[in-house]
Amino acid sequence: MKKEKVLALLLTAAMCATSAAPVSAADFSDETAETVAVEATEENPEVEAEDTESDVVSDAEETEPEVIADEAADDYEEGEVSVEAEDVEAAGADAQTLDFSDEITAEEEEEVAEAGSVPIKGTVKADGGSISGVISGRNNASYYKIDLSSAGGRLSLKGSSTEYMRYTIMDERENVIVRDYNDKNHTLDKSYELTQGIYLIKIYNESDSANGSFNIRTYFDTEGKTTFQENSNDTIYKASPISLGQKILGHTAINNTDDYYKIVIPEDGKYTFTYRTRTEGAGFQPFLYDSSLNEVEWAMPEDAGSCRWEVEKGTYYFRIKEGSFGAGYGRGFYDMVVTGHTHKFSSSTVDKATLTSNGSITGKCSDCGQTTTSTIYRPSSIRLTTTAYTYNGKAKRPGVVVTDVNGRTIGSSSYTVSYDRDAVSAGRHKVTITFRGNYSGTVTRTYTINPKGTSISKLSKVKRGFKVKVRKQAAKTATGYQVQYCIRSNFRGAKTKTFRGTSLTVNRLKKKRVYYVRVRTYKKSGRRTYYSSWSAPKAVKTR
Question: What is the pTM of this model?
Answer without folding.
Answer: 0.41
